[in-house]
């Protein structure tokens, strides 16, 4: 067994290469669904138009500024979130859920790469591809029609790119952990629905978290959800700058670590459970 | 088969009997897994509550949006979500057409003597949507109580007409979406823009829309008829440009327009469908 893992992975360098290949595989798998991409883009844009109408009207009704947003920055919020939604996908189900249900996950366990890392690599590839035909055009449509104000310096984009990678990673890790509940519960639809609802509302997808009344804002920041959508938008759009932006990134890193740890714990416990069933 | 007369001599079941049987079996199936069904009901309840929560957060920040205050928007939200959740319960599963096409299970529907659309409608009635409808109904009743409405038999007629036509409008949109999926299969998500997007658009005060959106959701995909226009009549407001309040009486016309298109699309879709020969 040791000879086999040595041959395939070849130490840490080999494992990195394997993960790199998985990222590419995730990317290339998405390229086959061109029609789905354009369909997703179209729907993104329609929702973007409705959402910008609501929030632009709200900003105007509040006298030009609302919770620190003006017409330009609320446009940036709407269209950046529409652009990101494909990458930090909202649906509660992930491939791992199906593999846990069918028992195929047993095969994943004997592979030389860590199960969580392998699925993360594939998902990062998927997210990277999604950004090109679906994410960037969404933002472009918003810029051309409704208008949005973006920062003029370079630093927000560098920190923003980092923040987006952290958000995509966190989105995956949280979904992964939720789907591992399948080790203990056969019917997971109820749990994934509860999760998707909380995710959509508390991440700032429909209304910015900054518009929440005090207590609801506290509830939201006690969850990882704002770090998945609101945070990368805040950093990219220049709503938080320099030291504040770094602080937002650190919070994201904290959630990534916590979600990764939770996933690993559940994976280990689930593996024991799986062996008990003798699959 | 030698004696068909013997069979027909028995009291024949009515034309609707097969549908009733299927519906009964769906209800039984969903009630038999009680825990799972309870979770589904809870999930659907939370979907309704968070949608109301989103509206509330906006109105927590601004007292009036598009000429409506929070009490006014409760009417729009209630009418819109009630119609949508009822339509979703009856027709929402039509978005599974691509799955049926891919797995080849659609053939079975073609082989039976009933119309394919009618069979698909009763094939997967989702009772869990009832809890979302309950949230909508509560919002609607609150809206009717909190607003100063001049009650008359006409007001009651308007309400009934609006809920029925609104359900029909969303139902027709689901049928159109299902029909388009015969051609789209992989690009099925595009239809979400007018089913779920339509639902989202119908729950807003349409006065805030730029002209293009007013025309799109007012006349092309006429979801503004579902809730906003009837709510204007209930509140006695004149309505913005392009969307005068009296149109609130024309919801059945909008429903007819949607269903006319939907049935044409459905005929085109089912004729276009070619079995994989499974």
TrEMBL record, chain A:
Keywords: Membrane, Transmembrane, Transmembrane helix. It comes from the Bacteria. InterPro entries: ABC-2_transporter-like. The chain crosses the membrane at residues 38-62, 74-94, 136-155, 161-186, 198-225, 245-267. This is ABC-2 type transport system permease protein. It comes from Lapillicoccus jejuensis. The lineage of its organism: Bacteria, Bacillati, Actinomycetota, Actinomycetes, Micrococcales.
TrEMBL record, chain B:
Keywords: Membrane, Transmembrane, Transmembrane helix. The lineage of its organism: Bacteria, Bacillati, Actinomycetota, Actinomycetes, Micrococcales. The keyword Disulfide bond does not apply. It comes from the Bacteria. It comes from Lapillicoccus jejuensis. Pfam families: ABC2_membrane_6. This is ABC-2 type transport system permease protein. The chain crosses the membrane at residues 37-59, 71-92, 130-150, 156-175, 217-234, 246-266.
